[in-house]
Model the fold of this input.
Amino acid sequence: MSDWRSLIPAADWQAYEAAGFARPTGLGSRPALLVIDVQYRTVGDEPLPLLESIERWYRTSCGQAGWDAVAGIERLIAAARAAGAPVIYPYVAPKAKIDGGRTGEKIPSLMDVPERGYEFVAETAPLPGDLLIPKRHPSAFFGTALTSYLIDMGVDSLLVTGCTTSGCVRASAMDAFAYNFRVAVIEDCVYDRSEIAHAVNLFDLQAKYGDVIALDAAVAYLGALPPREATR
Done:
């Protein structure tokens, strides 16, 4: 996706800054990495433009934007592992009819994903010992034990990656903020099927709920952390 900042009108940046929004909050010393919904259902089985990917693979695919982010997420996972930071995988679990609820009514295509679509993308797949969080709602926190795990691990900050920027990433980042975790959304490592939704949600997340930072900055942050027992 293009530089999302350029899609936000200058007047909006000025208005938010004048009102005191978008101040950086920074990160703590005990981060965890969230890899949200990086499954084939969100990128298709190969890099393709969005509409081609939807037609050939999955109606839920974000196409090339997803694959572009996967490359960044792969690099960030390696940096997190080297720093000993937990790598956590909130993911969409296969849905039975009873799980549909309002989601099934609003977006029926989410209920018709083939089994292959639920598999993790190989380049960013979990390793033995990583924490998997199956979820049935947008937020990685809603109806899951994620908060309990984070407390037990002593985590104070979350690096958020995955998709979609306007959906599960946003919902998870907002809930993390509500639980008083420090939040950084890694702009090169989140993706959406809509360029404008991606841009507007990054703008709003940065304004109100955390820091939106570049991949290079996230890797540098992880590399500067004090030594910590490595995790898989």
About this structure: The chain has a mean pLDDT of 93.
